[in-house]
Amino acid sequence: MSPLQPSQLAYVGLGSNLEDPVRQVQRGFEELAQLPGTHLLKHSSFYRTAPVGKADQPDFVNAVALLETTLAPDDLLGHLLAIEARHGRVRAERNGPRTLDLDLLLFGERIVRAPGLEVPHPRMHERAFVLLPVAEVSPEAVIPGRGRVADLVASVADQRVTRIDGQA
Known about the structure:
The protein is α+β, with helices and mostly antiparallel strands and 168 residues long. Helices cover 24% and strands 29% of the residues.
């Protein structure tokens, strides 16, 4: 475990398309709020999203959590993976269906390149289902090396994403 550090803002993407996706994401928020040294500051609305990469599966429910944490990025990732495991996450195929997916999107203004961890998330700037909820919780958010999230939203306007406000 890494030593505690000053608190940082961290953005976590949540997604599900199996076993009551809205409830999976709601439970994900609840579990993020219980992490040590971490406060759930706010979360986005829920968004229904077409699958990316593997189209023959149900649509996803996606959202973003804004956390304040004293955990190091690798420790936070370990907790995210443990939450996924508790939700029965199986990594059988790339871009396949899942009960709960948690992605560490941003960690302060840090750029992290380590085995199993890349922050900012390498494709977040290409995905409306990430950019829209991040812009909702924090319009001033910046993706290091890419720019302001609010400015990047226009580049993904052609992607089908529907705000559902927690309704399945």
